[in-house]
Design a protein that fits this description.
The chain has 621 residues and is mainly alpha-helical. Among the domains are: 102 residues, Methane Monooxygenase Hydroxylase, Chain G, domain 1; 124 residues, no CATH class. It is 60% helix and 3% strand. A three-stranded mixed β-sheet has the order 1-3-2, covered by helices on one side. Helix 5 packs antiparallel against helix 6, helix 15 crosses helix 24 and helix 21 packs across helix 23. The longest helix has 31 residues. The protein is globular, with a radius of gyration of 26 Å. The two termini are 42 Å apart. The relative contact order is 0.12. The N terminus is likely disordered.
């Protein structure tokens, strides 16, 4: 998803910041100086001989082990995809191809309870034991990484810490359940009458599910974890928008249009439409009315921003856990903050260099789009073709975001397809969003971003099923933003300095900086005045920017991590490897190797990419 906060214009602040560094330039890469000793014959003859290395044990690929791993991966996928009716419909197009009996799938929206989390963790632990019984070294080499990823997935699922109960906030601006649920139903494909029946069953389940969400929020309030009053007002405004659509909801149109495409009698079609209309007007909207009233009743439990940003030791542990999970990152909070600072200053120095080369940069106002999305997409495809392997045949549908969701939706979003239906792809475009960088938005969502990643990796046989479907947010967003970078580096239609500035500026202020501030505020306890001082100390307009970011990072402490941590790890890995390989570095080979691994945690991916880099060095030597 391409995110863009509706922030105040920060250009003046950036100019102020750059003026403090006007004499700076991009630092040169440091080269470690090594002392080389040339041995004479005497020293050579008396040198201590190298000890004989103990030979590493060798393993042979076992067809039995490979079959056991594939069978377990399939079993875990079926378990994961059939936990509830909505998940089943989003991941599976043809249940027969996975051996799934649709009658066994609970046709609900799932459970939003701590008890259910414990149950799933226990079941995942059983699968983890079965996986550990399979000898990784007996698998084909191209399956071993999938084994590692599945192992990490199951470890994450099996991890339950009772101290973390009720620390998760399901209702947040931009990405909360209340905003996502209507669109989730709009994305539900109705290919036959069974799909229609399931859709209506799930729609009727909304009151129960939202009731669990409200109960969860009530428990959070009881424990002193409830949201701030500003956050509550924002959520209530979003909920009211949906309530006000009782007679105009886009869910009437999306459902009716789908029904009209099915081979039904007029009477059957009308019966379905009437059922849908009744469920929307009564059950669906009624659930939102109950949620509104229930949340409003909790207003007295709202915390101040200072209270919300004061974390206990358990909350700090939870913060680190979610930060690592969202960023696909094994680094500690301290290590992650240093990494983000490094990326911030890398982008800063790049902007300074651009400014020194082009004094008119700030007065330029270039619309990064041809004005026609199809033309932009064709151009992006041509750039992608020079960098990455060709994609299998696939389809892309661009769809406008429904009007009532425009204010709570990002500029664009890619819809992840079913595992066995990756040929069909949808991207939602928020036409109400003023997007002067549409080319980069489409690069992020389509080519070579999200769409390219999912279509390419879903088509690979060596990437495990669970590896393909589990949400590796930091990996996905890190790649999508690196895809923007690739387009920036290879496009020729727009002023290069301006396009680079546009990208660097967006990364700094829409991802990296707020992620840094979230850590400083939520983990290290910085007050708003401390944030102001920190920002002033790094050359920014502290008071203005602190006033913008402080409430955002308190109300949404994890929102930026997928983007900031994901991109920083991807970009720094690329720079490190390209610097190490020098003239031997080949971008196409690097990208193909990276893509062929499939999703995972960056620490695991970097190990594999370092192996590739070592092999390139060996070949060069």
């Amino acid at each position: 998803m391409k995110r863009s906060l509706k922030l105040l214009a920060l250009l003046a602040a950036l100019v102020m910041m750059l003026s403090a560094f006007a004499g700076c330039k991009m630092p040169d890469s440091t080269t470690e100086t090594q002392t080389i000793t040339v041995e004479n014959e005497e020293t050579a003859s008396t040198a201590t001989p190298e000890p004989t290395a103990t030979p590493e044990p060798t393993f042979e690929v076992s067809e039995e082990a490979a079959a056991a791993f594939d069978a377990l991966d399939l079993e875990v996928f079926c378990w994961y995809a059939t936990t509830d009716g909505y998940t089943y419909h989003m991941f599976v197009d043809d249940p027969d191809s996975f051996g799934i009996d649709p009658a066994t799938v609970p046709m609900t929206l799932g459970e939003f309870t701590e008890e259910d989390s414990v149950r799933l963790a226990e079941e995942a632990s059983v699968y983890l034991e079965q996986l550990n019984a399979i000898d990784r070294e007996e698998l084909p080499e191209d399956s071993q990484f999938s084994y590692d990823v599945l192992q990490q997935i199951l470890v994450d699922f099996a991890y339950v810490n009772g101290d973390f109960d009720y620390m998760y906030e399901p209702l947040t601006e931009y990405s909360g359940i209340h905003a996502n649920l209507p669109l989730s139903f709009a994305l539900f494909e109705l290919k036959d009458t069974q799909d229609v029946d399931d859709y209506l069953t799930l729609l009727a389940d909304v009151p129960r599910y939202m009731g669990q969400v409200l109960t969860y929020e009530q428990k959070r309030a009881e424990l002193g974890y409830f949201m701030t009053e500003d956050a509550l007002d924002t959520i209530l405004e979003d909920v009211q928008t949906i309530i006000d659509s009782r007679d105009t909801s886009f869910l009437y149109t999306t459902f009716n249009d789908a029904i009209d495409q099915l081979d039904l009698t007029d009477e059957q079609a009308q019966t379905y439409k009437d059922q849908n209309a009744s469920l929307i007007a009564n059950d669906f909207i009624g659930a939102y009315e109950t949620l509104y009233d229930g949340l409003e009743a909790l207003r007295s439990s709202c915390r101040t921003y200072e209270e919300a940003a004061t974390l206990s030791d358990e909350q700090k542990s939870y913060f680190e856990y979610i930060m690592q999970s969202d960023g696909c990152n094994f680094l500690s909070v301290e290590e992650t903050l240093e990494m983000l600072k490094d990326e911030y200053y890398y982008l800063l120095y790049d902007i300074i260099a651009l400014q020194n080369e082009n004094e008119d940069l700030y007065s330029m106002d270039i619309n990064l789009s041809s004005g026609d999305m199809e033309t932009d997409l064709d151009y992006l495809k041509s750039i992608t073709a020079t960098l990455l392997p060709d994609l299998p045949e696939h389809n892309l549908t661009l769809t406008d975001v429904p009007e009532e969701l425009e204010d709570m939706f990002s500029p664009a979003a890619y819809v992840i397809p079913a595992l066995d239906d990756w040929m069909e792809n949808t991207v939602y475009i928020n036409t109400a969003s003023e997007d002067s960088s549409l080319l980069l938005t489409l690069a992020h969502e389509c080519y070579p971003g999200h769409l390219y990643q999912y279509v390419y990796q879903r088509s690979l046989d060596n990437v495990g099923r669970m590896q393909k479907v589990v949400n590796f947010g930091g990996y996905a967003e890190g790649w999508a933003q690196f895809a923007e970078y690739l387009v920036v580096q290879n496009q020729t239609q727009y002023d290069q300095d301006y396009v680079q500035f546009d990208f660097d500026y967006g990364m700094m202020f829409n991802a990296i900086l707020p992620a840094m501030l979230s850590i400083l505020v939520n983990y290290y306890g910085y007050s708003e005045s401390a944030v102001e001082s920190y920002l002033t100390g790094i050359g920014l307009s502290g008071e203005m920017i602190a006033g913008i970011y402080y409430p955002i990072v308190v109300d949404q402490p994890y929102y930026f991590f997928e983007y900031a941590i994901g991109y920083s790890q991807m970009a720094q890995m690329y720079r490190d490897i390209s610097d190490d390989l020098g003239d031997s570095f080949d971008m196409e080979s690097f990208l193909e190797t990276y893509m062929n691994l499939g999703p995972g945690y960056f620490g695991m991916i970097k190990e594999q990419m370092d192996v590739w880099a070592d092999s390139v060095m060996s070949e060069g030597a």
